[in-house]
Amino acid sequence: MIKKIVPAFLILAILLAFTADVSLKGNWEYSGGVYNGKPEPASKDYTLRRQYDEAHYTALFIEKGAEPIPYEKGDYVLKPDTCLETQTFSAQPSKLLNVTLKYRYQIKNDTLTFSGILPNGTIVQEYWKKVK
Predict the structure, then answer these.
(1) 101, 84 in Cβ contact below 8 A?
(2) What's the pLDDT tens digit per position in 35-48?
(3) pLDDT for residue 3
């Protein structure tokens, strides 16, 4: 009996050692979204970019020929299919400052998708492309 359990345990331990560690680390560019069922394309006049490290993010507003402007910063925690984001800085007055938002997230190929409901009831689905 023990001879059958030990190999099974070793195989399980090896498989668990190779599970992917999901991270948002890197740069992501907003590519559009759906808000309360209405599609909204990304602006052609400016770019929104998010820079993620292991636990924090910075959101940048970028116009051609100008320096990027940080408009939001915060902390995030990833769960298996959920991202918890807490805005800790906003360049403009914000009702979301220090409020933790819960999004379902999915990374498929080079696209990060956030889906959730904002505190004001807006249903969002945003698409962010990985910047290489």
Answers:
(1) yes
(2) 999 999 999 999 99
(3) 52
Global pTM reads: 0.81
Task: Round to whole Å and give the CA distance between 89 and 78.
Answer: 20
Amino acid at 73: K
> How far from 82 is each of 72, 74, 90, 102, 113, CA to CA, in Å?
20, 16, 23, 7, 11
Radius of gyration of the chain (CA): 19
Identify which of 86, 120, 109, 111 has the alpha carbon closest to the alpha carbon of residue 31: 111
Q: Which two tokens stand for residue 51?
A: 């820079």
Long-range (24+ apart) CB contacts under 8 A made by 77-84 are: 78/22, 78/23, 78/24, 78/105, 81/105, 81/106, 83/24, 83/114
Position 104 pLDDT exceeds 50: yes
In this prediction, residues 55-83 reach a mean pLDDT of 97
Cβ(113)–Cβ(124) below 8 Å: no
